[in-house]
Amino acid sequence: MRVLLAASEATPFAKTGGLADVASGLSKALAAIGHEVTLVLPHYRQVIKPGLIGELVGKVTIPVGEKRVEAEIRSTTLPGSTVRVLLIDQPDYFDRAGLYVEKGHDYTDNAERFIFFSRAVLEAARQLDLQPDVIHANDWQTGIIPAMLASEYRLQPWFQKTASVFTIHNMAFQGRYPWWEYKLSGLRWELFNWRQLEFYGELNLLKAGIAMSEIVTTVSPTYAREICRPEFGYGLDPALQTRGDALIGILNGVDTTEWNSAIDPALPLRYTVDTVREGKAACKAALQREMGLPVKPEAMVLGLVSRLTDQKGLGLIASRAADMFRADVQFVCLGSGEARYETWLQELKTQFPNKVGATIGFNEGLAHRIEAGSDAFLMPSQFEPCGLNQMYSLAYGTPPIVSNVGGLADSVVDCSPESIGNGTGNGFKFSQFTADAFLNCVWRAVGVFQHDKAAWNRLIRNGMTRDWSWARSAAEYVKVYNNARSRVK
Ligand code: ADP
Asked: Given this model, what pLDDT does residue 48 score?
């Protein structure tokens, strides 16, 4: 099958979050089972790295409202795979300090940038004669592609049989803009109605993808059910409900070339499930040193790598951190985000210098070392479409402590005598999103860590031996692609 995957970020080209890992992990896994995959990305300033520079393969002129915008198409390969990567090079839009945001503010022309990019994806496919069987768009940045395909491009011979699949990675980011931005798309006004692209008088790019694609997927089965309810749907729950069986949840995988404790170059000692005891002990001691903490094997290290936002449960952690420190625990945190949480972390570190190690910023290597060197990983999210970090921590033998939502619910099996006995238990979950429920869950984990090493080791083993690979998810995406193709008349 020929699959064209359009995304606004992909590892290692440019990344702000999980979407980047999914775009490259899925592309590689699809290519590995014989599909012809082309990944299309914006040529941001950040993609200009040694070994990733693309060669010029074409030029396109894209109508954007009244303007005609020229761009170059560069071609390269996703490292470690046969996936072709096309980079849409338009410096006015993409040669900037950030991907979507600079100094805390969204770029004011984000609608224009990504409507341009969406049309450029389709024009590049036509010009390079790619004839994709499926175009797989992701999140609001490429949400208008299914609308452009269904209402315009499918009338052309290149795209007559092309189906679209749209994946939602986070309902909280919808790409909502004033109605007049719709004119930039060049689409017919008939589509600007409440069932398709319009949302309370505004243009909603996520809704465009939801309404106009053959199949909508999201990144875990539980999140697929949750977003049909008002608490998680951010106003689009009715639009999602109407999709019925065309809304499908597929849990993301782990890119085992990037996240594999047996070969991870960021770790001081690599390990497998058979050498996890020595491996983690070495990684833990090194992490304690790196974060300026006392090197104490008996202290339980709780790790966190996250955007510092309410979504990720930072409020719960902040309100109960001092209580957590009554036990012999250390807290190791890497993240950036809301200023109030960055300030809180700095203050916490000053207040508890022997308990807290915190780095504000984005640091791939340290993220790996925290996953490996922590004893348990904190992820008490308010909502979590899939979540990658809990899967990385499971694969690295670091039981996660999570809220029972979205992909966390689908990947973490709560520790209990029964789940330890039947070989499924791999972490700790709490159901009520309250600070007390979170703290109780931490206490349960501390209790098992300190008093039942046999059970703790079972948790580690169960997490490390389950198949988290993209191969499993990719097989499900192939079924979805075939399903989508069967819906194109
Ligand atoms: P989300 O996409 O909602 O931010 P995920 O858990 O799905 O959350 O994915 C987050 C990804 O970003 C993971 O690969 C994680 O390791 C990485 N990440 C988040 N914050 C940082 C950071 N400060 N430094 C390095 N990597 C980070």
From this structure: 83
Pocket of ligand 1 contains residue 9 by CB under 6 Å: no
- CA of 1 from ligand 1 middle (Å) equals 31
Domain with residue 154: its CATH number is 3.40.50.2000
pLDDT at residue number 189: 97
Residue of 219, 223, 306 with the most ligand 1 atoms within 8 Å of its CB, for mutation: 306
Q: Do residues 343 and 308 lie in contact, with contact meaning Cβ atoms separated by under 8 Å?
A: no
Same domain, 358 and 428: yes
pLDDT in tens, 158-171: 899 999 999 999 99
Flag whether 261 is in a domain. Answer: no
Domain that holds residue 109: 2-253+471-486
Give the pLDDT confidence of 399-421 residue by residue, as tens digits: 999 999 999 999 999 999 999 99
Domain count within the chain: 2
Quick one: 149 and 247 in the same domain? yes
Q: Is 290 in the pocket of ligand 1 (CB under 6 A)?
A: no
Q: How does 441-461 read in b/e, with b if 16+ C-beta sit within 10 Å?
A: bbebbbebbeeeeebbebbbb
Classify 242 in phi/psi space as left (phi over 0), alpha (psi -120 to 50) or beta: alpha
